[in-house]
Amino acid sequence: MKHYDYIIIGFGKGGKTLAADLAARGKTVAMIEKSNEMYGGTCINIACIPTKLLIHHAEKDSQLENDKNEYYRNAIEDKNKTIAALREKNYKTLADQDTVMVYTAEASFVGTNQVRLKSKEETLVLTADYFIINTGSEPVIPPIDGLKEADHVYTSTELQQVAELPEKLIIVGGGYIGLEFAVMYANFGSEIIVIDSATDFMENDDRDIAEEVLKVMQDKGISVVHGSKATSVSNRKSGGIEVTLEFDKGKEFTETASALLLATGRKPYTEGLELAKAGVEVDDNGAIIVDDYLRTSNRQIWALGDVNGGPQFTYISLDDYRIVRDQILTGGSYSLAKRKNVPYSVFIEPVLSHVGLNEKMAQEQNINYVVATMPAANIPRTKINKQPNGLLKALVDPETKRILGCTLFSAESSEMINTVRVAMEADLPYTFLRDNIFTHPTMSEGLNDLFKMFDGKVA
Predict the structure, then answer these.
(1) pTM for the model
(2) Which residues have a catalytic role annotated?
């Protein structure tokens, strides 16, 4: 029975970064990953990197005029080669460390400080002083009749492995994952139908932003069916699938397609971990319960990333790593209580990015605000990059002049939103961005004009 200072279950962003830090300080670390296809974690292998690479290829629509199917196959091949190289690099980064051992096996707890590893070759038990759980999340599979028997039904992970471009794709789920795939495959040349159970498109976003996004998607030929859900799916004799949709008022409709994508969210992945044997509690959604320092109910075990029920972003897993690193390596005090203003970007076209409050949230929380909006086409850079679509929006506290939130639906907004977040974290007034010197011609200089619109609206 081999003993380690730390055992990390899951090769995700937070866990792998912590493993490298621990090894640099001479700690013995066991990194356990159940699949050799997942070294480096979800982001590198099946999420952020591969999808954004495919989105990049899809945006080169001028190259689709010849043979869109061949172009798509080449994009998938390039994605596979790129991911394989990144996966190998991540593996070697840890495996080449003298004090790190990478195990490719399934892990399950057999006690408060013991895990059993099962692989094709062997079964063994390891012990450690401390454990880090960083197993990520998995797709939620909705209760649709016929899913197990139907062909051409995929999760977002599985569809990326298919080298044949679907002529027509039905996407179940109107959330951000579904929208990214909708735009991506529309750009590759597929006909797209999005099945959205919500009556209001992008129901958590402000209506002006949602309407602008919907307009852009419809201009791409994407159909969004609101207030509906898929109730059954079956194979067609002529090929492809048939999907039965049910609407709020009980009406049914049948749609056919080449393939079906399930984009109905993700849930914490804890299957087979036997957490109860380690004294680790989970909530009703299956997320591991943690305190502000990411400790579980077993004080020798931390949980990082998607598995603890926090925002499902790679950079949140990295920030979780900082919280744990501060505790065990530097004696710092960083915690979840100090994390705020988490930004995000949805890589549709153009990119939708947000940080802080939107109007809907501010109204629900009875927070006083003033608002400014500006068409993205007002920014000179859009005349150069030929991407005039979109809308910029910001909220400011009229008394303190502090920025409450910002939504940017525009080209390059994934970069711009980080600048806004820095200003918010520094507790700077809106005038900081109004008067900041940005290079020209760039999309970022649009922040000058957006925040200048608050002049006269605040005290």
Answers:
(1) 0.95
(2) 440
